[in-house]
Amino acid sequence: MIVDLRSDTVTRPTPAMREAIARAEVGDDVFGDDPTVNALQERVAALFGKEAALFVSSGTQGNLCALMSHCQRGDEVLVGQLAHSYRYEGGGAAVLGSVQPQPLPQQGDGTLRLEDIAAAIKPDDEHFARTRLLALENTWNGKVLAQAYLDAASDLAHARGLATHLDGARLFNAIVASGAEPARLVRGFDSVSVCFSKGLGAPVGSVLVGPREFIARARRVRKALGGGLRQAGLLAAAALYALDHHVERLTEDHALARRLADGLASIPGITVTAPDTNIVFAEVAGGRAEALLAHLKQHGVLATGLIGLRFVTHLDVDAAGVDRAIAATREFMTRH
């Protein structure tokens, strides 16, 4: 059996989630009358203390709807150089929204220095793009951004007339790891996107939350992007099931990530970054990472090496799978 540690996006719906999908009451969400979608939107908006919510097909679409709703053509968003919405979403804001990203250097914990944020805000002058938005990400590479930092960054942005957006693709991991109240954690953000197809194990879907007027604009953007769905209640039902059954269990993923990190760190030649949540990064001495990935694959263990050797735990991985990954890594490092 394959131990798939490439990402928490590889999870498959559990039998109980499949039953919830099969039982879902549906309508036409473009007309706004899919009851299951509406129930999900209302629940997620209330959970995060926002007025309204919009179900979208992916985290990328949610972020793009947000950026294009906050910004007009020629406006600018301040974003981390390594943020997902800047680096890994096809340049959508620039390509489709004519929104200029201003990437800023990120610290090791994923934060942007407040001084860098302040310095990057352009004066009101025709020579410059109009700085309109600050976009942050939590978690970032599995790291949980501190509440004090989130408050300080959003306060700075608002004081300078900027809106704020939080890419919360793995926000539930941050909530569980920090013990924070969801609404308190995102209080400083005008909009937040949260994903259900990662650690929560749903097959498809994210939700964008924010003020009612903002969500109305985002709904128009979603339609223009081809994201108007019909009987989307089938997908929303999976997300609702995940909210009921897959949030608290994220602690199991975090514990398995620590188990994996501890095991890998005990192997000579492997340097591991201690995980906050469910993502483990490792460095392999001697330039052997690519060979190690190939060895792991031969032994039925999958990982990625795109941004350093990365392992992600999730609901389809158990302790035996983690131990198998550690053992295969140890075997390779001993022989090579």
Strand order of the largest sheet: 2-8-7-6-5-3-4
Secondary-structure element series = EHHEHEHHEHEHEHHEEHHHEEHEEH
Rough outline: globular
Distance between the termini: 25 Å
What is the share of helical residues? 40-55%
Summarize the structure.
The protein is an alpha/beta fold and 336 residues long. Helices cover 43% and strands 17% of the residues.
Report on the architecture of this protein.
With 336 residues, this protein is α/β, with parallel strands linked by helices. 43% of the residues lie in helices and 17% in strands. The chain is built from 14 helices and 12 strands. The mean pLDDT is 96.
Produce the secondary structure layout.
Elements: E1 3-4, H1 15-23, H2 35-47, E2 52-56, H3 59-70, E3 75-80, H4 84-87, H5 92-97, E4 100-104, H6 114-120, E5 130-137, H7 147-159, E6 163-168, H8 171-178, H9 182-185, E7 191-195, E8 206-210, H10 212-224, H11 233-245, H12 250-265, E9 270-273, E10 279-284, H13 289-298, E11 301-302, E12 309-312, H14 319-335
Parallel strand pairs: 1-11, 3-4, 3-5, 5-6, 6-7
Antiparallel strand pairs: 2-8, 7-8, 9-10, 10-12
